[in-house]
Amino acid sequence: MAFTPDTRLENAPDELLTSLDLQRIAQTVRAGFPERKNDWTYSDRHCAQAILNFLYLGPTSSIRDHNSLSRNRISSLLVLQDSALKEFRPSSVERAAEALGLQVKYFHVANVTDLVGQLPDIIRYINIHLMSSMEQPCDNEERGSLSPCDPERSKLLVTCASGNNLSAVIATAFIMATLRQEMRRAIRLVQCRRVSCVFMQDEMKALQTWEDILIAQSVVRGQGDSDCTSRNGSLKHSLAVPRRLKRDLEDMMEFDPQESDIGFARAADDERFEDRDSFVPFLDMARLKIGLSTPVR
Question: Could you tell me which CDD domains the record lists for this protein (predicted)?
């Protein structure tokens, strides 16, 4: 399957990934993209499905199937739980982690709106786990050359209670952010591999918010890159005398002789600028009554 990046998202930043890292991840996806699920049955909703060749999606209960975890070579579990269960660790998750030597990462959210705020941390965790399998270039390889990730050593299972809502939002948001795909295309990609995924109004709003964030970040970063390239040329302009934003006395006294229709207004207006020192804040009316006209300063 061809992944054509959405041009609106092409500059979306990630603090821990370089453009070369993103190329490696995209290369890994293209190297072995899982087939879409054409023979879906109701019982499949209780199992995990491969959304990408290194990213699986399913309910937390699917972690009980150690044979499936071993067969799919899952190396890390990302478990999404309700924020009220911060102190709770499902025994099935702990047993699987101990028996198979899996990494486990818990994220706690109150609702899908709360999930949007944690998406950067969640996606960063997925990317770090994926990049941990990066093959180091050999000594005779050119520095910076592409080396693909090894999905066989970095497969990750994302779960929530049902595997159809919040975890599906994570998988979709990851595809949007890392593979630079627009929202609806990413949703279709997830749904055709885990058919039971449900994107209701709240989930759609959350993903639309996420897409807006990515687009805004891309625009800001694109403008920043453009500013850097033109900085030398714009420096001369920045050193020029800045334009005055407010009128000063000289501006107000300027007069164009051709504007004769306002000439009389200018002449009459001159009086308020003459002998300004004689103006004082107030006059002592008591002194005026006794004949002392000198104003109090």
Answer: DSP (cd14498)
Which amino acid, residue 69? L
DSSP per-residue letters across 174-231: HHHHHS---HHHHHHHHHTTSTT----HHHHHHHHHHHHHHHHHHHHHHHHHHHHHTH
Q: What's the whole-model pTM score?
A: 0.68
Contact 158, 173 (CB under 8 A): no
Residue ranges of domains in the chain, CATH in brackets: 19-36+46-136+152-224 (3.90.190.10)
29, 151 contact by CB (below 8 A): no
- Torsion-angle region of residue 295: left (phi > 0), alpha (psi -120 to 50) or beta? beta
**How many Cβ atoms sit within 10 Å of the Cβ of residue 26?**
16
Rounded Cα distance between 134 and 154, Å, is 9
At 243-259, the pLDDT tens digits run 444 444 444 444 454 55
Tokens of 236: 């001369």
- Separation of alpha carbons 198 and 209, rounded Å: 18
Inter-CA distances, 64 with 59, 134, 165, 266, Å: 10, 29, 20, 89
What is the model's pLDDT at position 160?
97
Q: What does R_g of the chain's alpha carbons equal in angstroms?
A: 33
